[in-house]
Write a structure and sequence with these properties.
This protein is mainly alpha-helical. The chain is 56% helix and 0% strand. Helix 2 packs antiparallel against helix 3, helix 2 crosses helix 4 and helix 3 runs antiparallel to helix 4.
Length: 113
């Protein structure tokens, strides 16, 4: 059980980003292809939620709520894959029938950027 997510791991950038990515892909997968546009907003909401939960347990002044907002954006950016942001680096979100005919399997986790 200690190898899975812990509260300490969720409080860090790596754990929070991974949790955001996983939760967004699972929720988006349950919604289906019609939810692809909502995935970005789900990811942003989940990242901000994790950030504000972490801030709630922090012993800091009132400025922690402002910092939590920016930390949420950092978590969202890390989960989103900021390295994909130039449009030339993005992969297509839907495979065409010709790609599938050439032996390419559809990806379970596809880019929704």
């Amino acid at each position: 059980m200690n190898d899975l997510f812990t509260w300490a791991a969720l409080g860090g950038l790596t754990g929070a980003s991974a949790a955001t990515l996983l939760a967004t892909n699972v929720i988006g997968g349950l919604i289906g292809p019609s939810g692809d546009k909502a995935r970005k907003w789900i990811a942003l909401g989940f990242a901000l939620l994790l950030s504000y939960l972490t801030a709630a347990f922090a012993d800091a002044g009132p400025e922690k709520w402002i910092i939590a907002f920016f930390n949420g954006l950092v978590i969202f950016s890390a989960a989103l894959g900021i390295n994909q942001l130039p449009p030339g680096n993005r992969q297509a979100t839907q495979a065409s029938p010709t790609q599938l005919a050439q032996g390419r399997e559809p990806r379970y986790v596809r880019s929704w950027v």
